[in-house]
Amino acid sequence: MAATEFAPAKINLTLHVIGRRADGYHLLDSLVVFAGVGDRVSAILSDLPSLDVTGPMAAGLTGEGDNLVLRAARVMGVSARIALEKVLPVSSGIGGGSADAAATLRLLARMTGRALPGAAEVLALGADVPVCLAGRAARMSGIGEGLAEVPPLPQAWLVLANPRVAVSTPAVFRALVRADNAPMPREMPRLRGVAELAAFVAMQRNDLEAPAMAELPVIGRVKAALSAQAGCRVARMSGSGATCFGLFDDPLSARAAAQAIRAAEPAWWVADAPLLQPQS
Ligand code: C5P
User: Fold this and answer.
1) Chain Cα centroid distance, residue 177
2) Backbone angles phi and psi of 269, in degrees to 5
3) Which ligand 1 atom sits nearest the alpha carbon of residue 28?
4) CATH code at 119?
5) What pLDDT, on a 0 to 100 scale, did the predictor assign at position 279?
6) Which atom in ligand 1 lies closest to the alpha carbon of residue 169?
7) 10 catalytic residue (yes or no)
8) Residue 245: which of 162, 167, 168, 172 has the closest Cα?
9) Is 128 in the pocket of ligand 1 (CB under 6 A)?
10) Is the pTM above the cut of 0.95?
């Protein structure tokens, strides 16, 4: 019997680049949340390991050995036939590969009773894998290994839009002019309601937006298209782009905004989804 695990999109509501390590990795201060749209990883334990990639974003991804899903399975020491339903665009700033790797770790741990790998091994899969493995809103620090709990966030809806151009994360980091930017406020405020959450996001930054937009001006159009929608409280780029998100109060306005953007830009990937709340 195949078991399945959801791999939700990771959204950087803020992303401050506050330093650079000697090895070139950047130190971040980022408020990360998850959206109710994502990929799905399914597996059957088998002596013959394999990976089958399906779904609307499968093109361009292979089931070859360097796929993060297979790397995660190897880290778990588990041999399985794995199916990845790819819904999230690849190289798009919403953690697709990291989310898939984290879902694979969770799934194979659940199926076999094995322990999850240690923090260093998780981080070695990718800087966003630790937060995706935690799977709940967090303030992320270091290069991705530091995870601090944040006060509960209000129920909000997200519209995600991507112009279907893949972004090279290393190239965006290389194009960053300053790496010593100010962090977020030391204390994360308790944000009551979407208006307060949006006001907080609007006062913070994504320091990768400027270098990403310099390389790919279409990202500016994506952000503007979200901002222009009725009910959009704030719009920003996530991660190193090109996906941008808009924050909305309710599912109806998010759905209407997504439909309007889809109608105007049929080539873009657009999704509306709730901001996932921690299940406790
Ligand atoms: O860890 P991951 O493979 O996701 O990172 C991809 C690239 O993004 C790294 O090779 C590095 O160039 C850049 N990066 C960075 N600082 C981070 C995360 C990623 O410079 N905190």
Assistant:
1) 24
2) -95, 125
3) 21
4) 3.30.230.10
5) 66
6) 8
7) yes
8) 162
9) yes
10) yes
